[in-house]
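Job type: complex structure
Entries:
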Amino acid sequence: MSPLFTRAVRGEPVERYPVWMMRQAGRYLPGYMAVRSKTPFLELCRSPDLAAQVSLEPIERFDMDAAIVFADILLTADAMGVPVEFPAHGGPSFPHPIRTPADVERVHEPDAARTRCVADTIRILRSTLPETKAVIGFSAAPFTLCAYMIEGGSSRDFIHTRRFAHEHPDAFEELMQVSADALIPYLQEQIAAGADVLQLFDTWGAVLPPALYRRWVIPMTQHVIEGLGRGRPPVIYFPGIGSEARLEQAVETGAEALSLDWQTDLAAAYARVGNEVRLQGNLDPSLLLTTPKLIRAATTAMLKAVPAGHAHLANLGHGIHKDTPPENAAAFIETVQAFRPAAGALA
Ligand code: CP3
C-alpha cells in the first residue's frame, strides 16, 4: 500500500489526516545545528549521506508522515549558470543577478551533474524509511526561481523582479521558459530516485500584479507539471505568501493539492476549491513559538474547519521558524495524528 501521505494527496481513502512541516529539517533541531556547525550549507546539500541524515532527524524525533529531501530550491539556479552563495548570515546571495536582457543570455540549460546530489539523497531516504512514510521531492516553481535570480537574494517586495517583468517582457518570458524547462528533468530525476510526492514552491508568486500573474506564474507552473508526463507522482503547489485571492487560478496548474499560506481562511478555501484539489496547511508558524496548550487548541480548530469528505494534509502555512522549541513542534504533530474527524468524514 502507498504511504498514508501519498494516498491523501491523491484523494484516496485514509485512516487519519497526515502531517509534516515545511522546513522541518532545519535550524530548530539540535542535530541539524550540530551538522551545520561543521558543514557549510551548500556542502551539506551536496553530501547525500549527511543530507539524508538531517532529512531523517525530524521523522525519528516526531514520527510525522513524510520526509522532505534536504536541499534548496536555489540549487537549480546554480546548475543554470547563475551561482548562489549562502553566507553565514542574511540568506542566499547571488554575486551576479540577472538584471538586463543580456544577462538572460548567460543562463543555460541545467547541468544535471550539479544537482544529482538531490536524487542521490532521495535514494537513500527511500531505502531507509519504512513504506508507511512518504518521501517528498521538491523544486521551486518557475516564477520564484526567476525572482531570486533577478533580485539576487531575499526581498520584501521583489521590486527588481517586478520592474524587469514590466520593462523587458520578452527577456522575462525567455527566462521563465528556460527555468521551467530546467525544472522538468530535475524533478524527473527525483521521481526516478523514488520521490513519492513532489512539492513546487512558489513562495513569492503572488507579488506580481494580476495580469502578469495570469500570463506567466500559472502557465509556466502548469508547463512544468505537464512536462513530468504520465504516471508522475502527485504534485503539491505552494502558491505562496498572499495567494488567497488566487486559489482558483492555482488550481489551473494541474497540481493535485495546493499548500495554503497562514493568511488564508481554510474553511473558505475548502468551499471555493476543495472539490477540485486537496488542501495542505496552514497553521501560522508563529503559533509554534507559543505554548503546547495554545498549539493544541489552534491545531484542533484548524482541523475542525475541514469539511466532511476531505483528507486534509496538515502542515504549517510557511516554514517552521528557527526559534521553535522542538517540544512545540511535537505538540502540533501529536495533535494532528491523534485527531479523528467525525465518522465518515475522511475521503
Ligand atoms: O526541511 C525542509 O523543508 C527541506 C529543505 C528545504 C530548505 N529550503 C533548506 C534550507 C526546503 C524545502 C527549502 C525551500 C526553499 N528555499 C524555499 C521555499 C520555501 C520557503 O521557505 O518559502 C525558499 C524561498 C528557499 C531559499 C532559501 N534558502 C532562503 C530564502 C534561505 C534563507 C532563509 C532562512 O531561513 O535562513 C535558505 C536557506 C535554507 N534552506 C536553510 C535551510 C534549512 C537555512 C540555512 C542554514 O542552515 O543556515
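Summary: The CA atoms of residues 296 and 335 lie 6 Å apart. The first helix runs from residue 4 to 10.
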